[in-house]
Amino acid sequence: MRKLLYEEILAERHTVDTVKETLRHPVHVILHNIRSSYNVGSIFRTSDSALVSGMTLCGFTPHPPSKEISKTALGSLETVPWTYEKDILKAIQHEKDSGRKVFAVELTDKKKLYTDLVLADYPLTLVLGNEISGIDDAVIDACDDSLEIPMFGLKHSLNVSVAAGIVIFESVRIWNEIQK
After folding, report:
1. Among 32, 34, 37, 175, which is 20 to 30 Å from 1 by CA?
2. What is the helix (H) or strand (E) element at residue 44, kind and residue range?
């Protein structure tokens, strides 16, 4: 085993033009009231890597143009389709009207693990909330279901960009497994 050379990695990488034409995974991401521009940029980068269908930024979530978002997004602002909608409930309704099942990524009294997605859950939208307070009750009520990442330590939370990475990539992995 050896580490790939940078040139080898580049040879396999999409260009901005080819990634825009590539079939995307049926996973959409909504960010609601995220405080940190750096978290938003990191989630853009993760969403590009996972080839999600798009992102919707809501509430007071920072949105492009932003130097801080661009710094952590590393060019993915050009490759991830995104919109801004101030009203999260309108954004959720739009996703439902588009035929997507909407999941709050949150600890709730209904414990559905993020690893338990099935074909009937796709296409889907993942809603991620504020770094401190999580997702508001009214937003949880508007979602179809919730997904939980189990917590085993003292702290019962993850950084929102870390949680996004876990759930986005697992939902893509499950989708690809179902398609085999």
Report:
1. 175
2. helix 37-50
